[in-house]
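re: ur question from the group chat, yeah i did fold both. here u go
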Amino acid sequence: MLGLILAGGRATRMGGGDKGRLALGSATLVESVIGRLKPQVGALALSANGDPTRFADLGLPVVADSVPGQPGPLAGILAGMDLAAREGRSHVLSAAADTPFLPPDLAQRLSAGLSEAPIVMAASAAAGRPIRQPVIGLWPVALREDLRAALNEGVSKVGLWAGRHGVVLAVWPTDPVDPFFNVNTPEDLAIARQIARG
């Protein structure tokens, strides 16, 4: 299984730049994600466009979108699938660079869902119904050509493409902390820093 950290967002609500580089205690957001994912997967890579050398200090391969126009996270997932295929891996586990509190059993529980559907997405427990985390999921490399064709047709929504193939949710509790809390705004970053301090 290849772990793929999606770091290609434009971070417009944070003023632009590489959001994953923002400090969270003694580490950055992306370093926190690496620390959470690394023990759970066979290898890790980063999905990002632009100059890959800006991430050289992380020591991870960097894959760029192969589909033009930066259509979003699905293009990053496809880039991860292409890398996984070259390495002979069957699945890609994706997560965003701004989700520093990922659960330690993410890979295990997503993998368990494969008996029910080809795609397994993470979800946060919520009153009434689970809240999907569409970019945090487990993707079969066997679907990469289908995904490539969908992107070339203009499909950019993760849920729309995934729904064509069958999706099951793996749901995590949000108490005391939502493990999929993501940092989109300066206010979110302040909350994340408070959580990280304990």
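okk and heres the other one u asked abt
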Amino acid sequence: MPFHPSYFETLFRLQTPPRRWPDRFAIISACATTGEVWSPEQNESADHRLSELLAERSPWTHRLVGFSPTTDHAEPSWAVELPISEARAIGADFAQDAIYFVHGDELSVVSCGDPSSQFVGPFRERIVGP
């Protein structure tokens, strides 16, 4: 599956840095899928449901916002310490085309619909904020 080009330009904004980054973690959003438009209420509701689910399943969660530096499109997201298979399934349950997965400092975009993935670049170079 070819990935939308926006996945490769995404940066991540943090309000506060976590005490630690796990060695492996996923980044999942519940916002409208690329090419779809949802109302702010639909996006907020989906994000709230995702937040509650992740609080039950992940021993570590951290809020961040993925955004495009060229379009300023931004999506509230969650960094979570979950196996990649579980993170992909959650992404699919929330109508996402893909999630991000970080191993060490290597950021990859991972399809929720099939096992394809593609390396994006070093994760920490994409962090904006404290």
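fwiw on the second one: The beta strands are 11-13, 24-29, 61-67, 74-80, 98-103, 106-111, 117-122, 127-128. The mean pLDDT is 92. idk if thats what u expected
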